[in-house]
Amino acid sequence: MSAWLSDFFKGYVLADAIYVATLLIVVVCLWRMHRDGHIRLWDLVTATDKQGFIRTDARKMFEAGAFVVMTVGFSYLLLVNKMTEFYAVIYVGAFVSARYLRDREQRLNRQIEMKEGKT
What we know:
Shape: elongated
Strand order of the largest sheet: 1-2
Radius of gyration: 21 Å
Order of helices and strands: HHEEHH
Distance between the termini: 69 Å
Oligomer: single chain
Strand content: 5-15%
């Protein structure tokens, strides 16, 4: 059994353990803040529609998931000294462009509602 474990962890260093511990600490802190009512994690993936029902918002879910995946990848690449400028540009560019497109969509929807007289 111990030979299998030593083979499984072969090549990992202390930095990898610190990385995993840091991720766990972040998840635990978010969970506790959500449990205690300081934040609502469901707001990351839900939206209230015009009738007042809370529904899963695909755009928000995609953005939150992409943020988590890319941030974990970003921090891991930094940890193992494999970070490239290409990944950093993609990381920042993806979220800046998503925000720009969301704001543009909201402005256009507001203009359409004003033209229809639904102010």
